[in-house]
Amino acid sequence: VVAPIVGPIVGGWLTDTYSWRWNFQVNVPIGIVACFLIARFVEDPPYIRDAKPGALDAAGFLLLAFWLGPLQVVLDKGQQEDWFASSLITRLTVLFIVAWALLVVRELRVEKPLVDLRVFGDANFSIGMALTVVLMGAIYSSVTVLPLFLQTLMGYNASLSGLATAPRGIGSAIAMALVGYLLSYLDGRYLMAAGVGLVALGTFMLGKVNLSIPMESVAWPCFLQGFGMGLATVPLMTLAVGRLRNEQMGNAAGIFNLLRNLAGSVGIAITTTYLARDAQRRYSLLVSRMTPYDPAYAERLAFLQGALTPWTGRPQARHQAHGLMQAIVLQQASLAAFVDAFYWTALVLAVCVPTAFLMTRVESREPVALH
Asked: Which end of the chain is more exposed for a tag (fewer CB within 10 A), N or C?
């Protein structure tokens, strides 16, 4: 909960004051402290501590690596390499699809798999993971796209961008402080549906951005997104794993984290690709109107040329006026692409709200005694 609040602010300050590289290097001392604290304070429950260690599923491990490695490269470099126009992206896509298929077959057949996919036989877990994928994909794409909008079109520096998006973390903190209490009185499915709905509402509100909005118009939707995430995440995980055995919890948690991170990568890849191509499409449509026969264009061009002539002379002012018009059109095309991206994300989230009621209620789990 602390990370979404502190991360954007500290990350922006490090970028502006030192270098963006410090956002990665700062993890070294923090990671060392985290490893020490885990070794010092975290204990395994008895059913794990008393279990006999088995042999490593080496084949499953290699297939997992050959699935995740190429998939991450495809998602990170796909837009840059023009996706399947690149032979590298095509080959890596074939590789990760084949590795994924072999991994599924292998893990379902082996007695002690590296990743126990049998937990997907539980309907609550399967639905919960599907909803997690959509929710995390939408949130990660929004987390990526919004700072891009603020810094490229609004002129914010990294620090201001982090400050504008920090309310997302504040909303999550408040929601998580309340949701444990609310779960004692309300059906978790209603809380989950309300949370996803608030995330959709906050994303929809971001779709109303323009080039003259104040920071509050960004901070409030971010707060709603964060509050909705906090409200949805706890009951989502409670319902998803509520019918699993204690021995399956560790495996289920690993799958959850894996799918959450993959969903974020997929969401970012889809959204950035959509942004680039939608901006190009809208730019082409707007440029088609930039002719001397369009009164609005001719009037604007004449105004810019007249304003620049006393400073640079008439011939140079004409070229500069055309350059400014092109920059304005490109800016408006990019703005429209950002708006479309937010609206489409909000629509996907809104469609997922009823999914919460496909899950069944679970009884409270008795706490496991630790000795």
From this structure: C
